[in-house]
Structures are given as structure tokens and as C-alpha cells.
Amino acid sequence: MEKRIVCQKCVYYFVTWEAGQPHGCKSYGFKSRYLPSIVVKNSSGQACNFFVEKNKTVG
Question: Which domain of life is it from (predicted)?
């Protein structure tokens, strides 16, 4: 079973604030209606290879 990739925890994920394409991926360079990890999985058949978890620093 593959580990689920949570885009919101990735350094490359961003919110576009566009109603039709609210999710974006800086690594792959696209915006989408769906989470980038889902788009990548559906189009390539493989899980995202660029996932890098954001730093978990608490001040």
C-alpha cells in the first residue's frame, strides 16, 4: 500500500485563490482544481516524486 501524499504539507504546494484552480504545485509548475498529488498519480500512474515536507519548527 502506498503512503498517501498530503500536498498541503509539501514545500511546493500553494493556494492560488482562483475559484476554478485553487491548488498549485511549484515543482511541477501547474494549477488545478484537484490536489496536485492526485493529478500526478492519475496522469503518470506514479506517486509524486518531488514531495518535501515543510519544516516543523515551533517557536
Answer: Bacteria
- The domains of the chain are located at 7-44
Beta carbons within 10 angstroms of residue 12's beta carbon: 17
Residue 58's pLDDT is 63
User: For residue 39, what pLDDT is reported?
Assistant: 96
The pTM score is 0.84
Task: Give pLDDT < 70 ranges for the chain.
Answer: 1-2, 57-59
Q: How many degrees, rounded to 5, is the angle at CA 25 between CA 22 and CA 31?
A: 40
HEC string for 1-59? CCCCCCHHHECCEEECCCCCCCEEECCCCEEECCCHHHHHHHHHCCCCCCCCECCCCCC
